[in-house]
Amino acid sequence: MSPALQLALLGATLVLPRAQALTCQRATREFLINVSEMPLRWKADHEVCANGWGCQDTLILIDNGLQVNIVLTKGCTPVGNQDARITEHRAGPGLSVLSYTHVCRQEDNCNNLSTTLPLWALPSTAGPGSLRCPVCLSKQDCESVTKMTCPAGSTHCYRGSIQLRGGGVFTVLRVQGCMSQEGCNVLNGTREIGSIVVSEDCSPNAFLTCEWGSELHTGRNLSRMPIRWTTAHKICDPGEVCEETLLLVDAGQSSVIVESKGCTKGRTQDAPTVSIHSGPPGVLVASYAHFCSSNRCNRARSTSVLLNSLPRPAAPTPGDLQCPICVQGSTPCPENPENVTCPNGTTHCYSGYIRLYGGGIISKIHIQGCVTEASSSLLNHTQKIGIFSVAENSEEPLEPFLQDGAVPTRLLAWVVGLGLSLALWCGMPLC
């Protein structure tokens, strides 16, 4: 076969390199707007591509009759040329999913789509049917859902989540609306749309989103002065739930509080739990733990979810014992610290550490302070506090494992003795 004939046969797919790199329009946009605001226009930046790369447009519209979610990505791509194409992945009336894809190399900025107009037709003229469904498009939760009368031909109410990732996009959209068929199939089997991979899940905890982040604070009065709990968020892996854990160590003159929010496997939903591992007088070790399974349910906004539930006994009278006081979350306590008079009721000086692992935290909290004889071991061999694996005065390896987070047995009598001062336990608002 002659070279000319070979070239002719390959002409439909062969892309010859340009003498110089292409310049393409570049943008990543996500919009959630009312149907009345359609069609929509946008502007794009520009980028210079690698040699041989082309320009691409990917546009996805998800419409439930009241709102439209728009996802756009455009820029350079190594993918071969593809003619501009409009696809109805799911046609209305009711929920609809449409897309526009295009890959080109014929000239600079050939990926010049700037409006949803090619995908947007006039609203359906289908009359109302008898079915009513909740209708929602949201990146959060569909908590306040509007119900609407579905168009004629609708037979089922859809509720699911769609994940879109690729081309600079990573998002999960909660979707509810009217459908003309049963099942979790609003995407009609589609797995890729241009540069974006799409997936669908209609299980209750599909693509669970949790608040996420961890911090360690050192200071004074952290057992009385709340700290704002600021976090980002992340999409969990299948089977995970949300968690939030606080651990407070307070020796009176200094304190540490450790915070964790995120996703975790192997736990079920539990009500918020406050535990006092070692109580006053002397060193206070207390924790808050919460596991839950709805989007961003680990939304405590400050450490007051723990502090509001701590006992507030009257100011103790000074005793006869003197001990060094120190709580530090990174470096060891000073070798020759100043001694401080302990509160009445304490009988021993404590010097040790608690190691933490889990929830984004690997740390050793160094502790010196006053304790009663009954609380000379601050954790009483507790090995799990919320998401944290913990060990006291031990260098044994720490590994996450499941354990009930009950209040230590040795503290039950002390807890009962506090009487009404602990009435706030588990009854506090989530701040």
Automatic annotation (TrEMBL):
Compartments it resides in: Cell membrane
Broad class of where this protein is predominantly found: membrane
Residues covered by the UPAR/Ly6 domain: 53-112, 130-203, 320-392
Gene Ontology, cellular component aspect: plasma membrane raft
This protein's UniProt keywords: Cell membrane, Glycoprotein, Membrane, Signal
Signal sequence, start to end: 1-21
Tagged with keyword Magnesium: no
InterPro entries per the UniProt record, alphabetical: Fert-Immune_med_protein, LY6_UPA_recep-like, Snake_toxin-like_sf
BP-aspect Gene Ontology terms: cell-cell adhesion via plasma-membrane adhesion molecules; cell-cell junction maintenance; leukocyte cell-cell adhesion; positive regulation of neutrophil degranulation; regulation of integrin-mediated signaling pathway
Pfam families, per the entry: UPAR_LY6
Protein name: CD177 molecule
Organism: Panthera leo
Lineage: Eukaryota, Metazoa, Chordata, Craniata, Vertebrata
